[in-house]
Every structure is written in C-alpha cells, then in structure tokens.
Design brief:
about 500 residues; alpha/beta; Rossmann fold; Isoleucyl-tRNA Synthetase, Domain 1; 3 domains; 4-stranded parallel β-sheet; 15 strands; binds adenosine monophosphate; binds zinc ion
Length: about 500
C-alpha cells in the first residue's frame, strides 16, 4: 500500500509519489514553536497535522526520524531582522531569566501536545543548544561566498545567490517582484540588498541572550537554526520538511538558500505546509490577539466559546478538514465534532459486542481499501472520516441485527477501526485514559454501567445523584447520546 502514497509538494506545486531517499529511515523535520509565549490553537493545528502525517508514515511501516525543534533564541519582532528580541522582552516583563521563560513555555507546550495525544518527536533540538553548529554553518556560507559581514552582523547575499539558484522558487516568485515588494534600504543600512537577511546578529548592549563568535558577541538569525539542526540530524538532503504556510515566503525560503549555499545541495525533497486556523476568516495569531489557548478551549473560559470542548473533540474537529485547507473556528463546528467523536468512540465499544454470522452484508475489504486510498491521497483525513462513518453505520446496524458480518470481516473491521481511528487519526478514548489508574478505570466502568441501568429504569433522580456525588470528588460525567464519558478535573 505504501508505494501509492502521494504527497503534495509545495516546491513543485503538484502531488508527487512519495519516494524516500533511504527506505531504512525517513527524515522529517517540522519547525517547532517559539517558546516566549503559550502556543495557541493555530500553532496546535500545525503540530497535530504533522502528528497525523508522522503516524500514517509509521503505520505504513516506514522508520521515521522525526525532528521538531524548539526556537528559544534569535527571534526578533520584525520579519526582517528588526525590533526587540522576543525572549529578552518577555523576560524583562515577567522579571525572569530568558531561560526561565524558555523552560516555562516549553513545559506548557509539552503538556498541550500530550493532551492532544501527539507522539513526541524523536529529537527535539533547541536553538540555544546548537550555537556552535550555527556558527560553523555561517562560516561555511561566508567561505563559499554567499554572505558578508558588516560591523559584527553577517548577512546572506540574496542577489548573488539568485544568480545561481532561484531564491523565490518555494513561493513561485521571481527576484524582481520580491524586491519591488520590499521596502527600500535607508542610507544608514548595512545591508547590500533589500532582501538580504541576517545569519548572525551583533548583540546590542541590552541584549540578554548572546554568545561569542568570530564576529564578536551576538546571536543567530532565526532561519539558520533550522538549517543547522536539520542537516545535523537528518543529513544535507532529507525527505520531508514541514511547517505552517506562513513560513513559506521567508523562513523556509531562507532555509533553502542557506542550506544550498552551505552544502551545495537542495536540502529537502518534499516541502509540506499546513493551512491556517482562522477565527471569523482572520488567521489566528499571537499578534492579532485572536488566539485562544488550548486550556481556554478545554474549560470554555473565553468570550468566543459557548462551552468547553475536550482535547479529543478538538483533535477530531481538526482532522475533519484537510491539512491544506483553511479551518475556521466556530462553536457549531466544534459541537458537531464533539458528537462525531462520541459516535466514533461508542462504535469502537459496540464493535466488541457484535457476534459473527455466516454471511456478510457489507464489503469490508472495499471499505479498508477506501480508507487507504483516502490517506494515500495526500493524507485526506476528511474523506477517511467519511469512510469511517460508513464503518460506524455498519457496526450500529450489525449491533441491531440489521446487518451481518462473517468472523473474518468482523476481525477486519476491528483492525480497520483500531488502525485508522486510534493509530492514524490519534483519537483515544478519553474515558479510558482519563486517569491512567487501571483500578479507578475499572471502578468507573462499573459505576457508569450501573448508572446506565438506573437511567434505563428511568430513575433519573438516582442517576443525577450519582453524577453529583462523583462531581464532589472532581469527577465530571458527561452524557452523550450513546454513552457517558468521565474525566478528572484538575
Ligand atoms: P511560531 O511559534 O509562531 O513559530 O509558530 C509555530 C508553528 O505554528 C509554525 O509552523 C506556524 O506556521 C504555525 N502557525 C502559526 N499560526 C497558525 C495558524 N493560525 N494556523 C495554523 N498554524 C499556525
Ligand atoms: Zn524552522
């Protein structure tokens, strides 16, 4: 099945058959968060999308070295090497050391990723942990003649590079257009060309995060960390590089130029970009002030939210849209996802009760093929989910004795649901994993089963009392149409 995987490549603007450089190990690099702030739901969309992609590659049997960095230095406020350093600014504001800021938001990021059931990357390198590698790379780019130093800052010479390589190829733009859309240089500018960007930046006296270099005390430009760390762990040319679409025009365009100028090789075979999460059509971002935090979404504590939504309902919401389409946040869509997720989880449980028959009324092999076809078509999760809902329909009908399944079809259906719902989409049953305590899980199953019986007898006073008593123990029980889910409020 893996031979047929098609991936949309931003670089060529086509869906291409995925041919790994080395079948033994696929290299995948994803630009990680800038940890001077909490990640918002938009950032999470990108990381959850790549988690699904990573999961599917693993599911197909590939070995993957998945590297996702942490940007903990070198990120200035302006896109073009201007403004304050975000870490120093935040450190002063919160009266903390810059590395305390980094630690605080890295831990918060890991916690959120865990709640969304994302698999950890194999390597999570930090920019501050790879200053030597970045300095070496800048030296090599200087030696190769594609950069120049001006008063302790090293700039990449875009016009020189563009004479040999198409600088704007990732976004399909030529240099003249790019120059025309960039502001003119001032007389006092050190840069030779409007598009030149900093590889290494001289530290101003007030700059807290600084390192010694051949050009004096300074800190790396934002883009060089990803070039240095991806080539260190994945080699000078590797398979997949990803990030949000907003990184194409500057960050990834500059990464390609740096790596090519340093190593004389195009660094990446497949460039993959996720589209943006929007709120009322506007991209969710820290600077636009329309970004809510995953924690606010889970509790419902935000003016835009009608109520809280569980991490898995949110993950399901994201999977219902293709990663290359925009996804607009709305309470209605989240309500629908909550229901869809509950139906899917209920079907997983119902499946265990179905008894096999001598004949099948549905073609499960065809259904399995449809699931593969959807995922092999550039990870088309919305189409996959449509097929999985067909599986849910068959499961519910079989449970009502309106359809039948042979033993082998039943086994295939169980495998299909486990593989695609749990392993590939990364949806877990929140009732099972609520505490991680097996005894408590067993006890809660008994309690909720008895409560179901009480409700079936229409003794609603007793079932409400049970729920309220559990509530006093910080255990929340939520009733959905098919089942009841529980969680422990922290
Ligand atoms: P940052 O922490 O700003 O460097 O962003 C981390 C990742 O989140 C990058 O890959 C961005 O492209 C991505 N990202 C930022 N905003 C959004 C959004 N609204 N929707 C989806 N991804 C986003
Ligand atoms: Zn990056």
């Amino acid at each position: 099945m893996q031979n047929q995987l098609l991936i949309y490549n931003t670089l060529t603007r086509t869906k291409e058959k995925f041919i790994p450089i080395n079948k033994g190990m696929i290299g995948m690099y994803v630009c990680g968060p800038t940890v001077y702030n909490d990640v918002h739901l938009g950032n999470c969309r990108t990381f959850i999308s790549f988690d699904m992609i990573y999961r599917y590659l693993l599911y197909l049997g590939f070995k993957v070295r998945y590297v996702r960095n942490i940007t903990d230095a070198g990120h200035l406020e302006g896109d073009r090497d201007e403004g304050d350093d975000k870490f120093s600014k935040k450190a002063k504001l919160e009266q903390l050391e810059p590395m305390e800021i980094v630690q605080k938001y890295t831990l918060g990021f890991h916690d959120v990723m865990h709640q969304f059931n994302t698999l950890p990357p194999n390597i999570e390198p930090t920019a501050t942990g790879h200053i030597c590698e970045q300095i070496e790379m800048v030296k090599q780019i200087l030696d190769n003649g594609y950069a120049y130093e001006a008063d302790g800052t090293v700039y990449f010479d875009v016009e020189k590079y563009n004479k040999e390589f198409p600088y704007g190829q990732l976004t399909n733009r030529n240099l003249e257009d790019l120059i025309a859309n960039t502001r003119e240089l001032h007389g006092q500018d050190e840069k030779h060309g409007r598009l030149d960007f900093a590889l290494w930046i001289k530290a101003k006296p007030e700059h807290l995060m600084r390192w010694p270099s051949p050009w004096g005390w300074g800190f790396p430009g934002w883009h060089i960390e990803c070039s240095a760390m991806s080539s260190k762990y994945l080699g000078d040319a590797f398979d997949i590089h990803g990030g949000g679409m907003d990184l194409q025009a500057t960050h990834h365009t500059n990464e390609i130029a740096q790596s090519q100028a340093c190593n004389h090789k195009a660094p990446v075979n497949y460039w993959m970009h996720t589209n943006m999460l929007t709120v009322n059509g506007v991209r969710m971002s820290k600077s636009a002030g329309n970004g809510f935090l995953p924690g606010e979404l889970f509790t419902g504590d935000h003016p835009l939210l009608e109520k809280g939504y569980s991490p898995m309902a949110v993950r399901f919401f994201m999977m219902q849209t293709h990663y290359r389409s925009t996804l607009d946040f709305s309470n209605d869509a989240l309500h629908a996802s909550e229901k869809g997720y509950a139906r899917m989880m209920a079907a997983l449980k119902t499946l265990q009760n179905i008894k096999p028959s001598s004949q099948s009324t549905s073609d499960i092999k065809e259904l399995e093929k449809n699931c593969y076809d959807a995922m092999n078509d550039d990870f088309n999760t919305p189409v996959l989910i449509a097929h999985l809902f067909e599986a849910v329909r068959i499961i519910n009908s079989a449970n009502d004795n309106k359809e039948t399944l042979t033993e082998s079809d039943l086994a295939l259906l169980k495998k299909l649901m486990q593989d695609f719902v749990v392993d590939v989409l990364g949806l877990k049953d929140e009732t099972i994993h609520a505490s991680g305590d097996k005894v408590l899980e067993g006890v809660m199953k008994i309690v909720l089963d008895i409560r179901k019986e009480i409700k079936a007898r229409k003794d609603f006073a007793a079932s409400d009392r049970l729920r309220d008593e559990l509530n006093k123990l910080n255990i929340t029980v939520k009733d959905t149409k098919e089942t009841a889910v529980w969680s422990i409020e922290q």
